[in-house]
Amino acid sequence: MSQNCFGLRFGSGSDSGSGAMGVELGRGGSGGVNMFRSSAKYRLAKAQFSDEDIEEITPLNSPSRSSGSVLPYVGVASLGAILFGYHLGVVNGALEYLAKDLGIVENTVLQGWVVSTLLAGATIGSFTGGSLADHFGRTKTFILDAIPLTVGAFLCASAQNVETMIIGRLLSGFGIGISSAIVPLYISEISPTEIRGTLGSINQLFICIGILVALVAGLPLARNPLWWRGMFGIAVIPSVLLALGMAFSPESPRWLVQQRKIPQAEQAIIKLYGKSRVTELITDLSASSQGSEEQDAGWFDLFSRRYFKVVSVGAALFLFQQLAGINAVVYYSTSVFRSAGVSSDVAASALVGAANVVGTMIASSLMDKKGRKSLLITSFSGMAASMLLLSLSFTWKVLAPFSGPLAVIGTVLYVLSFSLGAGPVPALLLPEIFASRIRAKAVALSLCMHWITNFFIGLCFLSVVTQFGISKVYLGFATICILAVMYIASNVVETKGRSLEDIERELSPPI
C-alpha cells in the first residue's frame, strides 16, 4: 500500500559507494525478499578487483550503450505495478454500487470484508512471491501470477453474491501480493546502474497511476450504476498482457547465473545490454554468487540484541505509515466527500489519485538530494496538519459552510504529503538499513506488518467512523502522524550517499 502510494515501493536504494556490477545487482532494494544475499558475498565480489579496476569495468555505466533495450521489459513488469494500484483503488468508487447490487448496503462489516479480503490475500502473496521467484525464475513467476489476477478480476466482475466477490478479492489480493515482491525485484536486477534509481521509482509511480486509473474508471458510475462490474472486469486485460509480455521478456541474468545456467544468462545479457557486455557481466555475476562465509540469519536472529533495534525501526515505519490513515483515505475518500456535501465525489477522489502521482514524481527527484529522514519528517508533519484541518472542518461550526471544499483540499494535501515521504521512503529505507544476512527475513517481517495493519484498517474503518465519527478518527490519524515525527527524529538514521556496508557497520556491528 501498499506498498507504494501505500508504502510498497521496493525500488533501488542509494547507488553511492557501489562496486562492480555483481555487487550492484546484489544490493539493490527490492520487494522480493529472497533476492538478498549475505554481505560476505559482496566482499568476495569486491575482492576480485582493485578500486581502479572497478571503476574501469562497471559494465552498465553508460546510458547510450545499456539502457535502450531494458526499458520495454521494465514497462512490461510495470503492468504488475499498475494492477497492484488498480485493485487497491477500484473498490473506492465501486463499493456503494456493488453493496446495493449484492444486498449488503446496511452491513458495514461485510463491506469491510470486501475491502480487506484483498489485503489478506496480499499478505499471503507477499511471502510467496519471493520464494516462487527464486524457484521458478522471475519471468515464469510473473506468468503464474497472471492466473490469480485474471481469475480474481473475473469473479469480482461476475459476482452475484458477496461470497463470490470475497473469493475474487482474495485471489486478486494474492496476485498483487506476489507482484509487490517480484515487480521491483525484476526491475532492480535488470536496471543499469546509472538509471537504477529512476527505474526503481517507476514501480512506485505505476502503482499510483493504477490507483488513479481505478478512480477515473469510476466516473461513469453516476450514469450507470452497474458499471462497477466493468470496473473490476477491466483488470483482466493488463493481467493477460502481463503474461504475454513476460513470455517474451528475458530472465534476470543474476538469477540465471545463480542457477548455473550460464548459456541462458549470456542470451539474456545480449537481449538486455548487447553482446559486448557478456564477458564482463558473467564474470561479475559469477563472483557475486560464490559461496558465503556467513550463514543467513534465522527468524529468531531478528530479535537478537544485534539486530532488534534496526528490525524494530523497519517494522515501526510501516506501522506508522498505515496507522496514519493513508489506505482509509484511498479506500473511502468517495464516501467521505459525499458526507461532506461534495457534489462530484468520484471526481474529487480522482483528484486525490492525481495528487498521489504528482507527489510521487516530486519525491523521486528529491530522494537523493534531500535525504530519506528529512523527507519522512516533512511528510508526516504535512499529513498531521492536513488531518487536523480535515477534523476541524467537520467540527467547527464556523467552517461548516466550507466543509466540502476543505474536505477536498485537506485530503489532497494529505495524500500529497504522504507521497513525498511516508509512502516511498520506508520501503526504500529497509534494504539500506538491514544487514545483508537478515535482509530477506527482515523485509518479510516488515511487509507482514504493512499488510496486516492495512487489512485491519480496511476491515474496521467504516465501523469505527460509524461509532466515533469521522472528525475524531481524523484527529486520531493526526496524533499518530505527530508521534511518527517524534519517533523518526530519534531513531531513524540518514542513509543518503552512504554505502550499504557503512550503514551495516554502524547499525549492526558484530558482537
TrEMBL record:
Gene3D superfamilies: MFS general substrate transporter like domains (1.20.1250.20). GO terms for molecular function: carbohydrate:proton symporter activity. It is found in: Membrane. Pfam families: Sugar_tr. The keyword Signal does not apply. SUPFAM superfamilies: MFS general substrate transporter. The chain crosses the membrane at residues 70-90, 110-130, 142-160, 166-187, 199-221, 227-248, 310-334, 346-363, 375-394, 406-430, 442-465, 471-489. PANTHER family: PLASTIDIC GLUCOSE TRANSPORTER 4 (PTHR48022). Belongs to the major facilitator superfamily. Phosphate:H(+) symporter (TC 2.A.1.9) family. Belongs to the major facilitator superfamily. Sugar transporter (TC 2.A.1.1) family. This is Major facilitator, sugar transporter-like, Major facilitator superfamily domain protein. It comes from Artemisia annua (Sweet wormwood). The lineage of its organism: Eukaryota, Viridiplantae, Streptophyta, Embryophyta, Tracheophyta.
